[in-house]
Predict the structure.
Amino acid sequence: MPAADFNEIAELRQGLIRKALRYAIFAADPTVARVTTPFDNTGILQELPAGYVPVGYTTTDGVTFSGDLSTSDVASGQSASPTRSDVESDTMTAQWVPQETNAAAVALYDNLPLSGPGALPDLGTATWTWSRPKTPPTRYRRLVFIAQDLNKDTGRELYIVRHFPSALRTGREDEQWTRTAEIARGVTYQAYVDDVAGTDAITWIDGPGWRDYAPEEEEGGG
């Protein structure tokens, strides 16, 4: 076998280190359409279906996607390590802390609908008011997370889009009123399998900057 060139086999590429230079979170009620094609056939980011509401500014911690993975092992007398292992559960959650007091941040925190009866009215409407229900409803959401980055070499945009077609609030942080910080309403939402989508999370990467990585087609010989 020929000697290996470490630089070639390692394929170390600085340009593939991604950051969320800008990001946004959107939420919708389950009656709103799922996201199925966030990009057109040229890689241009498309508008979301009607009904998705932006969460707005969040703290600098951004969005944290966490996983909870558990397995079931089989132990055998002839082996010090498991001889079989099967996945029992594999869940994904998203956690973020909104800084704005807007309809989406309040609704996601206090489990209100985002549209229709019980939803908060437009900003500036006289006397926003909402009440905590005696029996909290199990209210699923659709969530979309969009991160924007740039291609290191071309400077063109690329996007990471993640969609939870069915998500449920599983945690919320303390709401603190203080002179020295904004009123923040941190929440955690867990992704659940959507029957139509057939999954609990879908992730796309595309954009002009992403397509710049495609290898150039060689011209055919004559």
